[in-house]
Amino acid sequence: MHPKHAGKSQTMQTQSHFLMTAVLRPALEKRGVTLHTKAFLLGSVLPDIPLFLLSIQFGALAAMGEHGANEELMAQYDWHFFNDPVWIVPHNFFHAPFILAVIFLLGLLLRKRGSPWGARLISLALAAGLHTGVDIFTHHSDGPLLLFPFDWRTRFASPISYWDPNHYGRVFRRFELALDVLLLGSLLWMWWKGRQVRRAAEAISLSPGSD
After folding, report:
1. What values do phi and psi take at 178, rounded to 5?
2. Coil, strand or helix: which one is 154?
3. Which pTM value belongs to this model?
4. Residue 210 lies in a domain
5. Per the domain annotation, does 208 fall within a domain?
6. How many domains does one find in the chain?
């Protein structure tokens, strides 16, 4: 998400992450990947939650103070996003490839020891990693910090930005909307198929002679 468009753009972008992860989950499970569903879905949105909360706080404080020009407020917002540790740390914690790798490895270790937290951490790290990968390649100047927490400046300058019209933002917004519709349709189709299968199984179990 981009700081200048946090309130509006995050909703759709985070929704896209959730839909992609939700559609991917059954495909991975069919290939033998054991996932903890709740942790996997949580991981799809967790990287964006801190900035969402900080944005709400910023908006509330701005509303209580003197109303300056919109450009001044956005400049303040951008300063916090790029320079304020109170914003940088929580926003980049679950966007950081290194931290997600550590969480994933910890999950593997716990799974080997038979802990139920193993699958949870693995699932969380995989989904957050997918989220981060998509963000890296859809942000031109405001993407995740690649080497956080060791480096607080380096970002990948993707030629594509999901919001910036100077970097195909308008085209990407149309693509993202179409993708969301397609993903939502896929989820509804999978839900309907699952419902039909359950109904068929119930009918068989209740039919005479099923015992």
Report:
1. -65, -40
2. coil
3. 0.87
4. no
5. no
6. 1
